[in-house]
From TrEMBL:
Active-site residues per Swiss-Prot or TrEMBL entry: 46, 101
Name used for this protein in its record: NADP-dependent malic enzyme
Recorded family membership: Belongs to the malic enzymes family.
Binding note for cofactor: Divalent metal cations. Prefers magnesium or manganese.
Residue span, Malic enzyme NAD-binding domain: 170-391
Domain Malic enzyme N-terminal positions: 25-158
Keyword NAD tagged: no
Superkingdom of origin organism: Bacteria
Gene3D superfamilies, sorted: Malic enzyme, N-terminal domain, NAD(P)-binding Rossmann-like Domain
Biological source species: Kribbella albertanoniae
Length: 398
């Protein structure tokens, strides 16, 4: 007898690590919504009975919402070019995040989703690939795609498809920031039309935060990128930044972030880096600091509290966590409930208002301006407001 070669034992350096153990085998699975127990059930679930359903949908495509999973399933799509704070790590390495997103959709909104990591960074190819997959899904959640490509991808898919397309890095962040700011203003007794806001970061989140704050009534807002304050005279701005420069910075500011913060009421950090304490010390009395970079906020809360009345971060181990999970499950739940063809600006504003309204005036305090992701009221409140806004905006098909 010839001895068979023995495969070498490959040790797993991460075995026993509780984080890795949680991810072992992935965090999601597909399960059946019905059980096939006999030939009669099989003939209805598959051939020949399924042919009747297929024929009906071919004659009336709207029936797919009722007789397939489309009415409650989102494609979570990425190319892995801007994953968390890790950057361009590629599609395969992005999968744990995409699985996590799908898990949160289900846990917090009752929405099914499929993580899809595309080995494709060309905008044309990305749009074409997603558009070709769209018949299988009721909505598209774009995730972790680098700017400025993400803006073009979202715009083109929204124009092409008749289902909700939502780039969460932009709009989920913006919705929760606006909700938290509305309550921070109540705590500090300031008016949204009279404050001056400085946003550090002109990528996906920074642009979307600026846009939703302008819609909500902020009149004095400046956006700062790595080279300074956005203004029309800068020759190095891409089209997205140039458009934003034209709509912001009514005070004509120039210079760096530290200059823009002088006298500002609100700092919103969505870019990383570190803001020196002497800069935030120059902000207006009763200022608000939202330092949202992860894992290291632009201003550590201990330092921020020396100068600001309200402090928020993106971390769960400090009060006032600005977390996208407060928004996207409820937004898609509401869009699906209304059978919305798209997600409008009105639906995003409604989501923010619903989030802010979860905390009563009696409950508001500097360390409690936004609800916890584990508050069971969050997703239903957001979903209801979004569905109603969809009807008001004329995009509901329910």
């Amino acid at each position: 007898m010839v001895a068979q070669p023995v495969s070498p034992v490959v040790s797993d350096p991460y075995e026993g690590d509780p984080v890795f153990e949680l991810h072992r085998g992935g965090k999601i699975e597909v399960t059946s919504s019905i059980h096939v127990t006999d030939a009669a059930e099989l003939s209805k679930a598959y051939t020949p009975g399924v042919a009747r359903v297929c024929t009906a949908i071919a004659e009336d495509p709207s029936l797919a919402r009722r007789y397939t999973w489309r009415s409650n399933v989102v494609a979570v799509v990425t190319d892995g070019t801007a994953v968390l704070g890790l950057g361009d790590i590629g599609p395969t390495a992005s999968l744990p995040v995409m699985e996590g997103k799908a898990l949160l959709f289900k846990e917090f909104g009752g929405v099914d989703s499929v993580p899809i990591a595309l080995d494709c960074t060309d905008v044309d190819e990305f749009v074409e690939t997603v558009a070709r997959m769209a018949p299988s899904f009721g909505g598209i959640n774009l995730e972790d795609i680098s700017a400025p490509r993400c803006f073009e991808i979202e715009r083109r898919l929204k124009e092409r498809l008749d289902i909700p397309v939502f780039h969460d890095d932009q709009h989920g962040t913006a919705v929760v920031v606006l909700a938290a700011l509305q309550n921070a203003l109540r705590v500090t007794d300031k008016s949204i039309s009279e404050i001056r806001v400085v946003i550090s970061g002109a990528g996906a989140a920074g642009v979307a935060c600026a846009r939703i704050l302008l819609q909500a009534g902020v009149g004095d807002l400046a956006v700062v990128d790595s080279k300074g304050v956005l203004h029309e005279d800068r020759a190095d701005l891409n089209p997205v930044k140039l458009s934003l420069a034209r709509d912001t910075n009514t005070g004509g500011l120039s210079g760096r972030l530290v200059d823009a913060l002088d006298g500002a009421d609100v700092f919103i950090g969505v870019s990383g880096g570190t803001v020196p304490e002497e800069a935030i010390a120059r902000m207006a009395p009763n200022s608000m600091i939202f330092a949202l970079a992860n894992p290291n906020p632009e201003v550590h809360p201990d330092i921020a509290h020396r100068h600001a009345a309200v402090v928020a971060t993106g971390r769960s181990d400090f009060p006032n966590q600005i977390n996208n999970v407060l928004a996207f499950p409820g937004i898609f739940r509401g869009a699906f409930d209304a059978n919305a063809s798209r997600i409008t600006e009105g639906m995003k504003l409604a989501a923010a208002n619903a989030l802010a309204g979860l905390i009563s005036p009696a409950e508001l305090r500097p360390d409690y301006i936004i609800a916890s992701p584990f508050d069971e009221r969050v997703a239903p409140a957001v979903a209801g407001a979004v569905a109603e806004a969809a009807r008001q905006d004329g995009v509901a098909r329910d």
